[in-house]
Predict the structure.
Amino acid sequence: EIVLTQSPATLSLSPGERATLSCRASQSVSSYLAWYQQKPGQAPRLLIYDASNRATGIPARFSGSGSGTDFTLTISSLEPEDFAVYYCQQRSNWPPPRFGGGTKVEIK
Amino acid sequence: EVQLVESGGGLVQPGGSLRLSCAASGFTFSSYEMNWVRQAPGKGLEWVSYISSSGSTIYYADSVKGRFTISRDNAKNSLYLQMNSLRAEDTAVYYCARDYYDSSGYFDYWGQGTLVTVSS
């Protein structure tokens, strides 16, 4: 079973700042990793797939990097609408696809 | 516009049954693989089940195997989840989610979710 560990649990930043979120896998998932954004009361939204590819309609300020066991989601300059919970998800050797525990990006 | 609309959630007693539905529109439903993903109150996301575009291939999470059944009706553009022998730990918002591309394992469109509460 592949376990995804996200850090930090909470990130307190101001609008305009850069956000760096981490996702570590318990074993290699190659590049089969996605990132989702979820706002309160809403469904998740796919941001990044295959570690570094932006999904359709996702702004360029969102970028993903990494391979193997260590991955990063970077938001280059936080907009007010970016404050949310972010989940990573792996699809290597699925089923099942598994999600990390989430990182909450909150306004400082 | 792609839309997924879940229905059928509600309060059910432990051991009871419930059938969730997901009505799809705005895309060729019969061409896409579909999934159910759930989220317990205040918790993270858990994948529940997958069904191929034709319905011939199905997978379940270990936590629901033998109790839940996924199905689809491509003529009605609908996805279903039959949930039997429900437990308190099945309490969650259940989302239907479309596979981004063939067997991608990524989910690009999600419904708004339907809440299932298992309690006596």
